[in-house]
Amino acid sequence: SDTHQFLQDLPKCEHHLHIEGSLSPALLFRLAKANNVPLPDPAFDPSFASLEALEARYEHFTSLNDFLHYYFIGMSVLITESDFESLAYEYFTRAHQDGVHHAEIFFDPQAHTHRKIPYSTVVNGLVAAQKRAEKDFGLTSKLILCFLRHLSETDADVTYQEAVSLGHFSNGIVAGIGLDSSEVGFPPEIFREVYASAAEAGIRRTAHAGEEGDTTYISKALDICKTQRIDHGIRLVEDEKLLQRVAREKILVTMCPLSNVRLRCVTKVAELPVRRFLDEGVRFSINSDDPAYFGGYILDNYCAVQEAFGLSLKDWRFIAEAAIEGSWCDEVRKHVLL
Ligand code: HPA
Ligand code: ZN
Questions:
Q1: Catalytic site residues (predicted)?
Q2: Distance from the CA of 132 to the center of ligand 2, in angstroms?
Q3: In sequence order, what are the residues at sequence separation of 6 or more whose Cβ sits closer than 8 angstroms to the Cβ of residue 114?
Q4: CB of 291 shorter than 6 A to ligand 1
Q5: What is the CATH number of the domain that holds 128?
Q6: Residue 109 lies in domain
Q7: Which of 11, 138, 169, 280 is the 20 to 30 A CA-CA neighbour of 151?
Q8: What's the pLDDT score for residue 338?
Q9: Cβ distance 235 to 215 under 8 Å?
Q10: Looking at the 3D structure of the chain, how many domains does it have?
Q11: How many whole angstroms separate alpha carbon 59 and alpha carbon 55?
Q12: Is 211 known to be catalytic?
């Protein structure tokens, strides 16, 4: 349709995409076999009996933690540099088809180093894919290093120091830090010290907050971790003052509509605070989060928003411009994107 074509053609930036969340069940089974990685015994979890069974299971997540259980099993099949390269190149190919011009992708180094896959194997694979995507599609991208919040601050710091010692923040390979995994019970202030080190070093900062957690997770991310973005942030509407502050300070909220439905943060896309954010001038981008798990890539998310809210050209222009202005690329690239 016309709207679909319009949304496809709209120059998009993706800011909330976990590269490990773009691992499809098909690639999961293929790599498990190729790398000899054992998957759970179907006698204990029938979801692993077949490709179809796993795909069906992904349609019935009950919460963030229910999803994360499968997310961490899934990524255990990623072993070699070339596995990470293929994974990321497949994502970039799809993103390009969806009209993405610039992507900032999260990766979870601790989920790999904890199973003896070196940090450099992960990053080298991802960087190889980034270079190919820029050459083949003109798609620019950045990496955002996420800490797993269910692990300790000490563990986050070890990961941070490894990236620092390799010069990955100063040479631009890693554009910033983020915080993901189980939210409730793991508030952002646990990670205050590593965020303070990053702030001092001029490293950009974001954190998942207000997905399942209440508004204190958002305010603590901003006040204590000094984040410049909020990932998800849909519960922001529960605190009017905080909402106005986010608008005033031009904090980018990275929304993930289909993810929020799949993880039962809302029952349908129409419940998301899209209209409220637009009316209050809260800058947000629309993203896919973990597209292989949540049944849609970025364009599907854009279309779901349009279907639910019937936005105007002016609204879409605001969203597209906020996404570009909130990107962590240099001013020259931003100018080209605008
Ligand atoms: N929330 C928290 N952690 C995650 C997510 C998410 O949506 N996706 C992958 N890790
Ligand atoms: Zn996420």
A1: 211 (proton donor)
A2: 25
A3: none
A4: no
A5: 3.20.20.140
A6: 2-337
A7: 169
A8: 84
A9: yes
A10: 1
A11: 7
A12: yes
273, 235 Cβ separation under 8 angstroms: no
For 300, the token pair is 């599907």
Q: How far apart are CA 103 and CA 81, in angstroms?
A: 20
Residue whose token pair is 């349009």: 306
- Ligand 1: which of 151, 211, 234 to mutate, most ligand atoms within 8 Å of CB? 211
Per-residue pLDDT, averaged over 87-108, amounts to 98
Closest ligand relative to 212 C-alpha = 1
Q: Ligand nearest 150 Cα, by number? A: 1
ipTM confidence: 0.97
* Closest ligand (CA of 23): 1
Amino acid 27: pLDDT: 98
Which amino acid is it at 45?
D
Q: Find the mean pLDDT for residues 219-231.
A: 98
* Mean pLDDT (the chain, rounded): 98
The answer to whether the CB of 238 falls within 8 A of the CB of 202 is no
Within a 10 A sphere around the Cβ of 36, how many other Cβ atoms?
Answer: 9
Assess contact for 326 and 283: CB atoms under 8 A.
Answer: yes
Residues 86, 124: contact at Cβ < 8 Å? no
Residue 2's pLDDT is 87
Given 20, 81, 104, 211, the catalytic residue = 211
| Measured distance CA(131)–CA(193) in Å, rounded | 33
Name the amino acid, one letter, at 185.
G
Does any ligand 1 atom lie closer than 6 A to the CB of residue 21? yes
Ligand 1 binding pocket includes 180 (Cβ within 6 Å)? yes
Q: Which of 20, 22, 64, 294 to mutate to test the pocket of ligand 1 (most atoms within 8 A of CB)?
A: 64
pTM (predicted TM-score): 0.98
Instruction: Assess whether the C-beta atom of 231 lies below 6 angstroms from ligand 1.
Output: no
Ligand 1 atom nearest residue 211's Cα = 1
Residues with Cβ within 8 Å of 2's Cβ and at least 6 positions away in sequence, in order, are none
Where does the pLDDT of residue 175 fall: very low under 50, low under 70, confident under 90, or very high at 90 and above?
Answer: very high
